[in-house]
Fold this sequence. Notes:
By secondary structure, the chain is of the alpha/beta class. The chain is built from seven helices and six strands; from the N terminus they run H-E-H-H-E-H-E-E-E-H-E-H-H.
Amino acid sequence: MKLHDLRPAEGSRKPRTRVGRGIAAGKGKTAGRGTKGQKARTGGTIQPWFEGGQTPIHIRVPKLRGFRNPFRVEYEIVNVGRINDLAETGILDAPELAAAADAAKAPAKAGKPAPVTITPDILAAVGLVRSLDKPLKVLGHGDVTRPLFVVADAFSKSATAKIESAGGTAHVLEFPSDAEPDDAAESATPIAAPAPARRAGAEKATRPGTPPGPANPMRLQPSRPAQIQRRAPEPCSSRC
Length: 240
């Protein structure tokens, strides 16, 4: 094996195809481009987005159809009718309230039922709310036949009206804002009085025991143009 015996691996190198060099070469005449047409011409390329003349995809897709509100709030919703149905069955009552409700059902004494407290945690426990990650909103579909004390993040007008008409209360959760200033901190911080402005003609500070000197009259009095004194004419001599 010598240097001139070295050859590249079989199939690793392929010679460039020379077109338009006669029929015998295999790629003569049309040079592999076919007979006429746009693709047979020099520079006759077709853009990738061309679809043969039909309406292209960037025209078919609808555009400018509104927008997506980035500040939209997604609620977990529940209707007052579902809450009232579960409250009638006693599932939403606390253990101590359930015992009191059983005692109130006795025929000896029949009074107005106590309001049932409804919170997002209770609704999630009974399966009316899927998740507690979203705020809860109560809607007004259905009827309310007993007083309910409902705590939620938002209420519709019809839901509030039905709950209050049945003797209940619709309580909206309110969270304090972090941006509110602290009144106590503001009252504890003293406010420094502004320093008095120094006048242009104020007296300068003197050493202890030295009476203050007079103010500079040139600075206190405004500058005026000097008056020119005119001399009276002398009497004319006899030679005039």
